[in-house]
Amino acid sequence: MARQAQIFDIKADDTDGLAKFAKENRIDLTVVGPENPLAAGIVDKFTERGLAIFGPTQAAAEIESSKVFSKDLMQRHGIPCAKSASFNDLEKAKEYVEKQKKPIVIKADGLAAGKGVIIAETVPQAIEALEGVMKTKNFGAAGDSVVIEEYLMGREMSFFVFTDGQKILPTVPACDYKRIYDGNKGPNTGGMGSYSPPPFFNDIMGDIIIKTVMEPTVLALADEGRPYIGTLYGGLMITNNLPKVIEFNARLGDPETQVVLPRLKTDLLDIITAVLDKKLDKINLEWHEEACVGVVLASGGYPGKYKTGLPIIGLDELDKDIMVFHAGTKPGPKGEVLTSGGRVLTIAALGKNLAEARQKVYNNIVKIRFEGCYYRKDIADL
Ligand SMILES: Nc1ncnc2c1ncn2[C@@H]1O[C@H](COP(=O)(O)OP(=O)(O)O)[C@@H](O)[C@H]1O
Ligand SMILES: [Mg+2]
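Above: the input record for the complex with magnesium ion. Below: its predicted structure, written as tokens.
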């Protein structure tokens, strides 16, 4: 970004600072990437000041920022999801998990950067997870409440729609890889790679997802006085060809966006403008036939402790058609690129099919080097 635009050092969750900046600099349009500012009400703040902004209000974004709210909403409106119960009392939560089938899924209510969900195989593991979330407060106030839910088996998939609060337009679907190690082992991360389209997906499945999940959810939020405007991300588990919701995100989540947007032919700005003008019915989304694969390069140790400030070399040796998305990087004093986070880069490519896209990505990843660089070798290896 620093190479393409001017960067200003205002933190993403400093919503006042951002609103002030946008006002003073007459920014025409703000697109919100991460979840924290949405949960903090950045959209409400900009809208109050007459500034155009793309994303849901604080009340609508609660569909992501509170898993308790999101589950309750789905249950009130008959949207398919895992059976669950919510607790704000540790002892009651412990009693409940003892009686449930294992594995069982424990989820901190609030935002936890993709790390607040624990899949427990046994009662002691479940109790340890509950204590970590509710007593030790490993995720802070996000763990004041928990959702405990049934473990769903199936294929996981992400499905985005653009919506102006009424009309919805689906994007192409994607799959991501949550676990840190090959073969889906180890702890959950923010995502280690993704691809689009999933080979098991077809148009009938897409219709079912739209009719049973995405449309009813947008309507439910409108009905409850929290109209949702922006991109709604459904994290789904497909079991016997039917979707159940794992969670919603209130934004273009990564790493899936990094394989969905490269396939988009329609100008994203036209879509955003149509959403804000409530004219989404005038837009027809067009997609490239090509497949897309993205692999995340992470700092050694992530999602646990890791070093930062390490120089990254080889970025200028990549083939022309390779896309590099920077996540945890920063410019060094001599203009070099340094690591600055857990997930450092996503390397992505389009190809005539998934196999070709995958080959391009892995052929190029070996050219990139930084100390401790870790990536999964099995992304899109289907
Ligand atoms: N009920 C469930 N059954 C099986 N796996 C689940 C379930 N809920 C969550 N998971 C797994 O845990 C991951 C993270 O859960 P999610 O609810 O998406 O939380 P977050 O993205 O906020 O960490 C999911 O992507 C999925 O792989
Ligand atoms: Mg998720």
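Notes for the reader.
The mean pLDDT is 97.
The pocket of adenosine-5'-diphosphate (ligand 1) is lined by residues 82, 105, 107, 114, 116-117, 149, 151-152, 156, 178, 188, 235, 246-247 (CB under 6 Å).
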